[in-house]
Amino acid sequence: MLLSALMLALVLSVTVFGQIRHFAAQQQLSDSFRSQLAEGVAPVSEGTFDDVLLTSGAPVALLEIPAIGVREVVVEGTDPATTQLGPGHRRDTVLPGQAGVSIIMGRAAGYGGPFGRLQQLVPGTTFTVTTGQGQHEYEVIGVRYAGDPAPPPLTAGKSRLTLISATGLPYITTGLVRVDAQLTSEAQPTGVRQTRFATLPAADKELAGDLSMAWALVFALQFLLLVEIAAVWSFRRVGATRTWIVFVPLTLFACLWVAGELSRLMPNLM
């Protein structure tokens, strides 16, 4: 029964509760980003307007792709916990609209699945990205999978955006899809960027899990074990009725906690 409850909690955490969390996060991020745009303090580099390094999950852009119904606030960072909030901007690349290559990674199914229809984009599709430097217009130039050739290197002053997500059945990743788009509006100056690919955390790369948070999973499992031990003791001392009333909510909470920590270990694009 405990194993079944844990599996159910994991499924609910990624699907039902994950969708709710994504929706609520996007509402909050949208309000925050609109406020930053209005005040002229939206980030244009890896730091804030006050030159403080952006935290993971901070809003950096608004991505709008009408052809596949995408309107998402893009956040800084691409680790599993961050992509639960929305599409993530990879820290080692420039922001959209700036000269150079920018990369945005998003989930295909879980937590809103904002990039679930990415493979439906075709060359010639246009979309926009809004940042602290204005609205930038893009045109899709290609969709590629493993083994397909990459676009030619950019010339000076040019800009390209690559959207990345997972392929395969929902919640079963088998590979990656990359959509390359070229900037058709004017390229903006590149902001200061501290992170490089060599220093990019492993959890921020494609299809990566966050093993650095494994300790939190251990604590969650210990709590679940303590709850079950206490439930067995209570069952023998005070009977089934009182035990069910007290420990069913506690067990569900513990299972959801464990499931939430397990989701951090899963691929960040699932």
How does this structure look, described?
The structure is a single chain. The protein has helices spanning 2-14, 16-39, 80-83, 214-238, 240-265; strands at residues 59-65, 70-76, 88-89, 100-105, 126-131, 134-144, 159-167, 175-183. Strand 7 (159-167) and strand 8 (175-183) form a beta hairpin. It starts with a helix and ends in a 5-residue tail after the last helix. The chain has 5 helices and 8 strands. Helix 1 packs parallel to helix 2 and helix 4 runs antiparallel to helix 5 (240-265). The chain is 34% helix and 21% strand. The chain has an 8-stranded mixed barrel. The protein folds into 2 domains: 2-204, Sortase (Sortase, Chain: A); 212-265. The chain is of the alpha+beta class. The model has no long low-confidence stretch (mean pLDDT 92).
